[in-house]
Amino acid sequence: MTGSPIYELRGVRKVFQTPEGEEAVILQDVDISLQEGEILALLGRSGSGKSTLLRIMAGLVPASSGEVLYRGRPVAGPVPGVAMVFQNFAHFPWLTVLQNVELGLEALRVPQAARRQRALEAIDIIGLDGFESAYPRELSGGMRQRVGFARALVINPDVLLMDEPFSALDVLTAETLRTDLLDLWSEHRISTRGILLVSHNIEEAVLMADRILIFGANPGHVRAEIPVRLPQPRDRQSEAFRGLVGEIYLIMTTRPTLRADEQLREGVGVAYHLPAVSVNRLAGLLEALAALEAVAGSPRISLPELAEDMHFSVDDLFPLLEALVLLGFAQVGEGQVELTASGRDFVNADVQERKALFARHLLERVPLAAYIRTILDERPRHVAPIERFLGELEDHLSEEDARRVLETAIFWGRYAEIFAYDDNARVLSLENPGV
Ligand SMILES: Nc1ncnc2c1ncn2[C@@H]1O[C@H](COP(=O)(O)OP(=O)(O)OP(=O)(O)O)[C@@H](O)[C@H]1O
Ligand SMILES: [Mg+2]
Question: pLDDT tens-digit profile of 36-53?
Fold first, then answer.
């Protein structure tokens, strides 16, 4: 890594207008550089603003404020040296593979003969030889994504911006395509000088990147930077690889736990952004944790192993963990999760005992649930329309989030039988409450 960076982003901020006319801050204080000769991975949860950032870098949408420099110049529109690869390969179905690939060059006004020549080269290099005259629908998912890569590579891009390019593929196909791309890159068979890879997948990032940025949400910002100093090709089974994956899990799981802990300490209260997960899934995870604990012979379960065992992505796992920590059924720390005594009691309880235990924890630890119950207790007829609570939540949350948070509190409260809810009348009540 020498000289000036290919990309430099300083204090980038992006604000969208919501349909209700409010401002939603999607990116805040984003400082990123892409260095000459590096693969940089951007790892973050769904909705953290990764795709938005990529579009800003490509010049497809402007930042609201901050600096975006490409090769030292401010980005003011689509950047010619930059190609993108997307998760969903949007090809033209009525064009052949060759025609699809050539298309990228038409905009650059490359003459017909040269266009064909370069498209054939790109097709060759990405392993689509023999499929030039096929139509996209005749190809497997992996081959279709190769067309996506060929379309990007045909312009001999200086920079590749890749938005989860492997996540729609099955495991084996994804791995083959990753390896092929890494080979092209490390053998300098492509002219590309820098790659930014957006990913959900921690292992993919550790496998491919020279440096990993962990992106946090609400608003999107860089939370941590992790250099990957393992030589290529990397061995997923090696201790160093596993260690790094574990370390990243650790960083990515600190926040949900912290949030839950902070809220309990400070009593942040009613408008806490409850993770929208069902009681069924919570119970399922508690049972799985108890089973893993028995197999491992230790109460502490490593998060990467848990995710692998349950085929969970980070986005599946974190809201569930956050809810378990919030409810006091599990503790998370140092990349590991452990059932609390109550969590273990829940697993061993029968249906009615589970409800009672859940009710107790819900009332003690989830202020919104306790608040709804208090209001219902205080009212002479013990009923309240949900608008009563929605309005209050909207003082702190967007309309959409307020609805989702209340919905979650209602689902949990109904399961625990601390109040009842009439879907048609949209009314909460104490009819047949269990406690
Ligand atoms: N044009 C837009 N107008 C309003 N809001 C938008 C717009 N584009 C994106 N958003 C919002 O910005 C947030 C970030 O979206 P973005 O697609 O960048 O996230 P992401 O990290 O790529 O998520 P994912 O991992 O699911 O792809 C989301 O809440 C999304 O709803
Ligand atoms: Mg995205």
Answer: 999 999 998 888 899 999
